[in-house]
């Protein structure tokens, strides 16, 4: 989808008071949506939280969702809304913006017409893609960062984007790492890792279910393609809305991929094992 921009007249029309404040039309990975705020400053802060790859658009279809951030009451509470529904209320603006960004991301991941969004880290080595599916706090970002330090091309640390062939596409937002004992995420620039971004779609060569556990032994066991598809469904964002499409995507991907499972300890040794296996084939060791 080609980027589209708002003309001055369209911007003015979207900003008219009759539309409930200032508005901005956007699209991300084929999903249109609108941002609405009471001021241009707040609208710009909301735009900065839009999903990676979002662009401004000239027109929106009637069904496009509206994401709003409103300050209400004498206590200065911030309400995050989708259309007329209040999702969360926060006293701090930063917390409200983070929540807003998360809801926008899930909306895009749920409705993207051309991709299946999978909760997974993703890298590539010598044109062979590696997926690391897992829930939050499973250690995906830490392992992805170590793989990038070792020379792998960065594709994503949170969402892997798969097309109908099962090919991986870049979703190279900045890496976000949690400090030990903290829920807050800190952005890590690729330059800090001497890393590089992947630039084109690749077939997936290996899927590894590797959750971090302190002092765990790295001992990967093979997972059958059918079992891998079932486990991947647990991490697919649009599985409840479009289950047939999701299963078909994962089935196509697994025709050319192997799958493995193991708990893991520290990331450096595991990263080197995975990169060797991508080149040599066979089990990571």
Task: Explain the overall architecture.
With 285 residues, the chain is of the alpha+beta class. Helix content is 28%, strand content 31%. The strands form three sheets. A six-stranded mixed beta sheet has the order 3-1-2-4-5-6, covered by helices on one side. A five-stranded mixed β-barrel has the order 7-8-15-11-10. Strand 1 and strand 2 (31-37) form a beta hairpin. 39% of the residues are buried.
Estimated helix fraction? 25-40%
Q: Provide the gyration radius in Å.
A: 20 Å
Our count of domains comes out at: 2
The overall pLDDT, averaged over residues, is 89
Quick recap:
This protein is an alpha+beta fold.
Keywords:
Phosphoenolpyruvate Carboxykinase, domain 3, 17 strands, globular, 7 helices, 5-stranded mixed β-barrel, 6-stranded mixed β-sheet, alpha+beta, 2 domains, 285 residues, single chain, 28% helix
Write the layout of secondary structure elements.
Layout: H1 8-14, E1 22-28, E2 31-37, H2 40-48, E3 55-56, E4 65-72, E5 77-82, E6 85-90, H3 93-111, E7 116-125, E8 128-133, H4 140-149, E9 153-156, E10 159-162, E11 167-169, E12 175-178, E13 185-188, E14 196-197, E15 202-209, E16 221-223, H5 225-233, H6 243-254, E17 258-261, H7 267-280
Parallel strand pairs: 2-4, 8-15, 9-14, 15-17
Antiparallel strand pairs: 1-2, 1-3, 4-5, 5-6, 7-8, 7-9, 7-10, 10-11, 11-15, 12-13, 16-17
Helix pairs in contact: 4-7, 5-6
């Amino acid at each position: 989808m080609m980027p589209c921009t708002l003309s001055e007249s369209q911007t003015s029309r979207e900003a008219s008071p009759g539309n409930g404040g200032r508005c901005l039309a956007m699209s991300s990975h084929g999903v249109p949506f609108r941002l609405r705020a009471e001021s241009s400053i707040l609208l710009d802060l909301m735009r900065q939280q839009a999903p990676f790859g979002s662009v401004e658009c000239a027109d929106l279809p009637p069904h496009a969702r509206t994401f709003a951030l409103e300050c209400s009451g004498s206590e200065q509470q911030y309400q995050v809304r989708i259309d007329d529904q209040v999702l969360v209320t926060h006293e701090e603006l930063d917390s409200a913006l983070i929540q807003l960004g998360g809801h926008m991301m899930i909306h895009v991941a749920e409705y993207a017409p051309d991709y299946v969004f999978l909760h997974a880290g993703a890298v590539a080595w010598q044109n062979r893609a590696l997926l690391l599916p897992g829930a939050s706090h499973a250690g995906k970002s830490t392992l992805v960062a170590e793989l990038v330090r070792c020379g792998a091309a960065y594709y994503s640390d949170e969402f892997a984007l798969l097309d109908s062939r099962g090919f991986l596409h870049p979703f190279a937002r900045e890496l976000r790492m949690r400090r030990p004992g903290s829920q807050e995420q800190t952005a890590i620039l690729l330059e800090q890792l001497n890393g590089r971004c992947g630039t084109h779609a690749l077939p997936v060569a290996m899927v590894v279910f590797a959750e971090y556990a302190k002092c765990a032994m790295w001992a990967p066991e093979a997972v059958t393609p059918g079992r891998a598809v079932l486990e991947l469904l647990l991490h697919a964002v649009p599985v409840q809305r479009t289950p047939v499409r999701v299963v078909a995507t994962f089935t196509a991907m697994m025709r050319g991929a192997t799958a493995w499972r193991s708990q893991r300890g520290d990331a450096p040794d595991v990263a080197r094992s995975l990169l060797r296996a991508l080149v040599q084939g066979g089990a990571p060791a």
